[in-house]
Design a protein that fits this description.
This protein is mainly alpha-helical and about 170 residues long. Helices cover about 70% and strands about 0% of the residues. The protein is globular. The protein starts with 13 loop residues before the first helix and ends with a helix.
Length: about 170
């Protein structure tokens, strides 16, 4: 089987999402005080950092580092296969089976998904900047810890979050 050459996959870098969230809250970076919209966007960045960290972990755990066009396509397909609702449901359903690092990640994923929905859709919600700032720091640590979990556990979590049980 031959395929055209393709560029190596470039996932969304979860670290950049965390940093962008911090920038949204930083008056020196903005040149003014953050608005409510800046704070809400920072909340979204936190959730999407978790989401893209999981997507990248899943692809890397199942495919490894792409070394040719076919594995690059496979890696991208696994990365893009992550569904928000399925991931949350399966992470919570199986959380008691996980290590502390993976359990903390599952809890943060579910919590931040709900917080993002509040930030994005509840115009009456009051979201304190200091709470968002603390969650940025906590989430960064949670992701780093999760990525240190055993490869076998990350493979298991990838299959849970990507493949529908029958």
């Amino acid at each position: 089987m031959t395929t055209p050459d393709s560029a190596p996959p470039t996932p969304v870098d979860w670290r950049n999402l965390i940093q962008a969230g911090r920038d949204l809250l930083n008056p020196q970076q903005l040149g003014r005080l953050p608005t409510d919209e800046h704070v809400r966007r920072a909340v979204s960045n936190i959730y999407y950092a978790l989401f893209h960290a999981l997507a990248e972990s899943n692809a890397s755990a199942l495919i490894g580092s792409p070394h040719d066009a076919l594995t690059a396509i496979a890696w991208s397909r696994v990365y893009r296969g992550l569904d928000h609702t399925t991931a949350r449901r399966e992470l919570l359903r199986h959380r008691q089976e996980f290590s502390v690092q993976a359990r903390d990640f599952a809890d943060a994923f579910a919590d931040m998904q709900q917080f993002r929905h509040t930030a994005d859709y509840d115009h009456n919600a009051v979201i304190p900047i200091n709470q968002v700032s603390a969650r940025l720091d906590d989430t960064e640590g949670t992701i780093l810890n999760y990525l240190q979990a055993a490869l076998s556990e990350r493979i298991y979590i990838a299959t849970l979050t990507l493949i529908r049980p029958r």
